[in-house]
Amino acid sequence: MIVKPEPWMKQGACSGMDAAMFFPELGEHGDEAKQVCAVCPVQSDCLDYAVQIEDLHGIWAGLTYSARRTEQKRRGILNVPGTQIECSECGELFTIAGKNASRQRACSNACKIHRSRRLKYKEITV
User: Which of 88, 61, 89 is nearest to 75 (CA)?
Assistant: First the structure.
């Protein structure tokens, strides 16, 4: 996943630090990263950003991926079947359905394929 830089990110306590600290190895908890986040002046901005992005890995705002999923549920922003959302490609509203509803971002297979190709191209060119 490519992270879009936001203005507040420059003010983060993590700015300029080794990013590897925020991506702990399997079995590690990222305690050092969580300590940095605990004193960060933009922690709330970071959390607001992190819960809006589905596949964001690592420690963000002091939370792991699973902790952010819990926060998404608490805020009511985790996609569930029957929810109307905007297609990430064409902008049309559609109702998400079925299994994997929490990962659905495109309204049709055509938009899904276009999104997949766009993201792959973006990763190569950045």
Answer: 61
Whether 53 and 91 map to the same domain: the answer is: no
Per residue in 73-116, pLDDT (tens digit) is: 888 777 667 767 777 777 787 777 766 666 667 777 777 777 66
DSSP label at residue 77: -
**Residues 23, 71 share a domain:** yes
d(CA 27, CA 42): 27
Give the whole-angstrom CA distance, residue 7 versus residue 45. 10
pTM equals: 0.63
Amino acid at residue number 26: L
Residue 21 CA to residue 36 CA, distance in Å, equals 10
Q: CA-CA distance, 30 to 41, in Å (whole number)?
A: 19
Residue at 115: amino acid letter: R
